Every structure is written in C-alpha cells, then in structure tokens.
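Sample entry as discussed:
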Amino acid sequence: MPSEPTLQRTLSLWQVSVTGIGVILGAGVYALIGPAAARAGHGLWLSFLLAGAAAALTAYSYARLGAMRPKTSPEFQYTSLAFGPDVGFVAGWLMLGGDIAAAASVALGFGGYLGHLAGTPIVIGAAALVLFAAAAMYAGIGHSVGIAAILTAIEAVGLLIIIAIGVPFWPTLDFRLTAATGPGVFSAAALIFFAYLGFDELGNLAEEMKAPERNLPRALYISLGVTTVIYVAVALSATAVAPPAELGASSAPLALVAGRTLGQGADVLITCMALAATANTVLLLLVSGARSVYGMASAGVLPRGLGRLTKTQVPREAMIAVLVITLSLVALGDVARAAHLTDAMVLISFICVNLGLTWLAVRNRNARGTAMRISDVGVSAAGALMCGWLLWHGGVVWIIAALGVGLLGAAAAIGRRARARFLVTASPGSIGKGGTTT
C-alpha cells in the first residue's frame, strides 16, 4: 500500500529568512505608521524599538521550543509540550484566528490601495488578492516562497526609498522625551506590534526546512533584526520629513513623505510598493494559516480530513478552509477591528508560548544545563510580561473579544473529545459477549 505523502524538507536558511522578512515587513508599517505617529510624535522610533523588543523576547521562546519540537502549528506544538494538548489547542486556535483576521485586514488594505490607483471597490480588490494567493499556494510551497521573495524585494525597495529621503533631515529631529509623551509612545507600540507579526509564522515551515533545529532560530533572529533596523529608520525618516500630526491625518502616510520631496509621481510609486507589500503579507499569512490547520489536524485536535496532503505535498483541504474563512471576513470590510482583534488573539497566544518555556525550564525539562535554564526562565518570563503589557495597552474590549474566541475554541475541543468518546463507546465492536468490553 503506498504511503501517505508528507511535507518535504526543501527550504534553506536564506529562503526561510527571506520569508520571515517578507511576512514581517511592509503591510503593517505602510498602513499603521500614520496613526502610530499621531500617538507617539517624534518618539515613534522608540515605539518601534519597544514593539521589536517584545517580538525578540518571544522569538527567543519560539527558537528554543522550535529546537525541541520542529513541527507545524508551532503555538499548538510548543504550548502542548508544557501544558498538554488542551491548552495547546487554545493557543493554536487563537494564533490561527489571528492569522486569518490579519490576512483579511491586510487584504482589505490591498483593496484600498488598488482602489486609490484604479478605482476598484475595496472588497472586490481584496477578494481578488485572496484568490490569487490561493492559486500560488496550490502550486506548492516553492512557488509561494519564490513569489514572496520577489514581492519582498519590491516592498523593501519602497521602504529604503523612504529611508533615503529622510536621512538628510535626521539632524533636525528632537529626540528628547518627556513624561507627557510616554503614554503616547506606549500606545503606539501596542498598535504597531501588528507590524512585527510574522516571525512566529516561521515555525509553520519547520517540517519543510532543512536542519530546523539549527536554522529555525537563525532565521528568526535574522528576520527580526533586519526588519527592526528598517522600521526604526523608516520611523526616523517619516517624522523628520512630515509632522507627526500630518502623518496621522493621511490615508497614505508614506506616499505623503515621498511626495514632499519627489513630487506627485511618488504617490503612484509608493502606492505600487504598498500593493506589493500587502500582497506579500496576505500570501504568506495564508500559507502559514493553512499549515497551522494541517499541523493541528495531523495531531488529531482538528478533523483529520484537514490533515491530508495532495501528491505534490499541498495541504489542500486545510488551504480551502482558511481561504473560505478569510473571504468571509473580507466581505465584512472592516480593517481596523480586524487588526485590533488580531493583536489581542496573537498576544494571548504569545503569552502562552512564553509561559510554556518558563514552565519547562522551571521543571528542568529543557535539558540544556543550568545557564541555559536560567536564561530560558528569565527571557521567556520577560517576554510574557512584555506581551501582557502590550495586550493591556491595546484595549480591554479586544482582550474580552479574544478571550471569547479562545473559549469558543476550548468548547469546540471539549465537544470533539466528548463526541469521540461517545462514538467509541457506542461502536458495535466495543461490547463483547456477556457484556464485557472487547
């Protein structure tokens, strides 16, 4: 009997690192730098550093846990190591919901940019992007990563243009911060954490990565380091060229920055860069979301049918499920709410992952010596606290909404387990002659 197809280890360190940079870069900073600047003012660069620090602390936990269990659906896998599959399922469920909501909100951002350029309805443009991503995903992971590499180069060029425009103005910046600017810097950090989402998705490529125990941590650190440097430089340039209040009032803040020095043609140029950025992010979020569903289905916590692969190693059923839900959210057409809910769900999932490493290290199950054990406890606990701090600054309403999604996932898991027990008990072969179990 032929064996079931499995995911193949074909991705190199540079491919995974470029994928990480691509999914982190672009969509968040293109869309959110305006409202973040309105809150943080000239302290915007510090907001990016704070959000990057939270991401880096959590990336440490992903790197350590990824070395212990290099499998898809990392939030489920990593949290299950510490707290069992039930808590792991809730963490994976929240991250999956966050990925899909993020993909929908970024797709709507693409629709907005496309409408600005061509006059098409936002929802139609967003849906067209999702269908394009579906075709790329079905062609296989190699094609998806190849397209992502091209789009990453385009969006990176757009951000480098913004940086170059602003560098001559950096000496005019006022780096002094006061107690009055602190709350705005913190609020902006909570908002633009969305711009860092994506580093966690690299864990979903673990089963298709060469030497994941070594290359997954390296790819995480490379992608976060590169994007943080770019983000801080973009923040400095944007606030040096245009007043933060004007950036906050603009629907296309980076186009505003380019237009100040390069003229009207820059609007079209940066809009095209934004289209590449949003398209890239949606593609990679959907790729990771499908593999997260596949990973949980393969582990038996989602219907097994979602864990099947085609002969070309494409998780088709998982991909279809993710695409249908994404298109449903796109039809709602509300970008802001999707982004807020995304942050809340993802941050709670990150807290679970960080606490998972803390718990394993405290119980001495990380098996790496005393120094590594102390490092694991300290860094992961700091990551959990930092994520909790950002979660609180994001708003209580969204915390409650995200917890509601988590409870829905927990109820689904309990119901599925109860149904499985009932089917086993009710099976004709479960009772033998004389009433004894077989």
